[in-house]
Amino acid sequence: MSILLIMALAVGLQAPAEPGERPHLDPKIREPRRVKASPPEYPPDAVKAGMHGPVIVECTVGIDGKVTNAIATEGDPPLSDAAVAAVRKWRYEPLLLNGKPKEFVLTVTVHFQLQRVTVEGLCESLRSRYEAVRESAATLLGYVRPGARVSPGDVAQATRQLKALLDREQSQRVRTAAEAALDRLSAQ
Question: Which residue intervals of the chain are DSSP H helices?
């Protein structure tokens, strides 16, 4: 690593707020090069429910470049759980300050791409233990329309399952999604 890069990284560190706190990388400075990155395992519950999107993870990278701690700061389980599990396996080039390795904190984004979903899978997902999975499934069921891959029976099944969900659901977030989905389905 060149002296200029070490100086740039040193300038890019924000001073710790508390004594003993690890430095955070300045967002204007390019993050250290990742040398090992395992993709996250897309949780089956999330796939069936059509969950997708970014998960923001804050991780601590040790002096050896290994991620020593990771927590999701944005994103819902089970995607956030999968993102954290993947990031914990990542490795970076060690950060050198004045020629010595230094621990640092880094924020990364893990993206989950929308997978193909089925009415059956969405209906199954309404029983998930994860609130975000139930919400995603309910929302997507509101867009079920008869067509090449969806029968009128599928629309009827979606309506029945959403009504059953409302009978048992405690989460206001999920109830709101289910009510909106039923409104969209009844407007067909």
Answer: 3-11, 44-49, 79-87, 119-125, 131-141, 152-168, 172-186
Q: What is the model's pLDDT at position 31?
A: 58
Which residues sit opposite 105 in a β-bridge? 24, 60
Query: How confident is residue 98, by pLDDT bands cut at 50, 70 and 90?
Result: confident
* Boundary-marking domain end, from 90, 112, 134: 112
Do residues 108 and 123 share a domain? no
**pLDDT tens string 138-167:** 999 999 988 878 889 999 999 999 999 999
Rounded to an integer, what distance in angstroms lies between the CA atom of residue 132 and that of residue 119?
Answer: 17
**Residue with the two structure tokens 């060149």:** 2
Domain interval for residue 145 = 119-186
Distance of CA 167 to the CA centre of its chain: 29
Q: How far apart are CA 1 and CA 96, in angstroms?
A: 8
Same domain, yes or no, for 96 and 170?
no
Q: How many helices (H) and strands (E) does the chain have?
A: 7, 9
Maximum separation of any 2 CA atoms in the chain, in Å: 68
Q: What is the CATH number of the domain that holds 69?
A: 3.30.2420.10
Question: Are 141 and 162 a contacting pair, CB within 8 Å?
Answer: yes
